[in-house]
Amino acid sequence: MEYFNVAILGCGTVGSGVAKILLDMSDELSARAGKKIQLIKIVDLFPQKAAANYNIPLQIFCGGGKDLSREEATRCIDEIIADPNIHLVVETIGGTSDYLYNIMLRILQSGKHLVTANKAMLAEKGNGLFQAASQHNVLLGYEASVCGAIPIIKTIRESFTGDKVLEISGILNGTSNYILSTMQHEGLDFPTALKNAQQAGYAEADPSLDINGGDAAHKLTILIRLAFGANIDYFALHKQGIEHISREDIDFAHEMGCSIKLICYAKQLVGKVFATVTPMMVKNE
């Protein structure tokens, strides 16, 4: 059976989850793919901690399992990019730095497939990555970047191939939806609802992107590119978050038979795209 070798960049919660699936389900995945899928390399700055926390064999980590400086990690990544026996790289580092963008670009240019859930990178700097994937005839996989559990990317790509998508509308950020729902149903003000969301694990310690519309806008930008075939500027997309929604706003919407939701909306109009992320009143029907 032909081998298909995988490397992972980063071994936090997401990277370790991917690693465990590849290690624990290797036979099942190989049987489905018709190729022997092997995880052969992981790059992480702190491999001993990652190996202990997630029960991953230390020998898979680059650098012999010792902690790496950024320079050493970069050399490991360079070796992965140059290795013709590695066919797929999974990026789980996150962020939108030029350093990471150049790594992702070089992976694609080397003829390797790339999988990422990095919605911020794809939304803000994705045009160059998609172009490189097309030019070098490799796959840029990003299903987990937007509503991965649905899955929406696969649905649009495979089920609407012969159709023209005219409009996108929906809730794309679970944290903001949880906050607005608890404000509505439990009579909370915004600061209290946010604190409860953080304590329940629905919101990060720094919830900025969730509550200011940034996370939802990242996702909408990706969906617009896929569904409309349009490369829009993420930074020009209108974004308004929920941080200024008050109890009075929630109560007024309730009197109107509505709920306030952070809605992502995009529509094709005469060759142009209108898009916004903003709180809207939605009928309770």
Succession of helices and strands: EHHEHHEHEHEHEHHHHEHEE
Low-confidence stretches: none
What's the shape? globular
Q: Please identify which CATH superfamily of the largest domain we are dealing with.
A: NAD(P)-binding Rossmann-like Domain
Query: Based on the structure given, which CATH architecture of the largest domain is correct?
Result: 3-Layer(aba) Sandwich
The chain-level mean pLDDT equals 96
Give the oligomeric state: single chain
Structural class, by secondary structure, is: alpha/beta
Q: What's the level 1 CATH class of the largest domain?
A: Alpha Beta
Helix percentage? 40-55%
Number of domains: 2
CATH topology of the largest domain: Rossmann fold
Number of helices: 12
Task: List the strand order in the largest sheet.
Answer: 2-1-3-4-5
Largest sheet: 5 strands, parallel
Strands, count: 9
Distance between the termini: 54 Å
Strand percentage, roughly? 15-25%
List strands and helices in order, with pairings.
Elements: E1 3-9, H1 13-24, H2 26-33, E2 36-43, H3 47-54, H4 70-82, E3 88-91, H5 98-109, E4 113-116, H6 119-135, E5 140-141, H7 152-159, E6 167-170, H8 174-186, H9 190-199, H10 208-211, H11 214-228, E7 238-239, H12 247-255, E8 258-269, E9 272-283
Parallel strand pairs: 1-2, 1-3, 3-4, 4-5, 7-9
Antiparallel strand pairs: 6-8, 8-9
Helix pairs in contact: 5-6, 6-11, 8-9
Q: What would a concise description of this structure say?
A:
Strand 3, helix 5 and strand 4 form a beta-alpha-beta unit.
